[in-house]
Amino acid sequence: MPELIAPSVRVHTSFLAAMAEFQAEGRGGPGDHSSVGREIREYGPRWADPAVFADFAASLRAEADVSIPVPEGWVHSTTLWYVGGDEYLGRVALRHHLTPQLTEVGGHVGYDVRPSARRRGYATEMTRQVLAIAAGLGIERALITCDADNVASRRVIEANGGVWEDQRGETLRFWAPTAKIQSV
């Protein structure tokens, strides 16, 4: 059964294969403002080096440490990888607070499932589990957003109790409960 883990060198080879899948579908270009897109641009050419990958995984883990200051406009976040054994399946990020920008686009929770692992319920399960973590951080309701045309993501959000609030531009905004996680 897959599990959420802190970013780890254990899945290095599988992670590289997953990032290649994302790149094959067009992720990582200048218009891709997602975490995966940004990381592909920043680390992609260097991830194969085990030392660079170890530093990358450590930097993701450090983003959750509230004793470490974050750059202006950023918030602390907990990034977890969804893995089955040593197979990287996806990621989920929990932003500890909302900035004005995250309130419009981004929200508390973001997730990606590698293309070859989609349509198996992994995004729904990752979101369910991270909402429990959000409750532990004192977040009573988590804002989760998706593109208006992303039907699959909307289903993930709604399966986790997300209640539609509004649409801002091309972004749909939902609030999901965290204290009482529903079984999915």
Automatic annotation (TrEMBL):
N-acetyltransferase domain sequence ranges: 38-184
Gene3D superfamilies: 3.40.630.30
Domain of life: Bacteria
Pfam families in UniProt: Acetyltransf_3
Record's protein name: GNAT family N-acetyltransferase
Native species: Fodinicola feengrottensis
Lineage of source species: Bacteria, Bacillati, Actinomycetota, Actinomycetes, Mycobacteriales
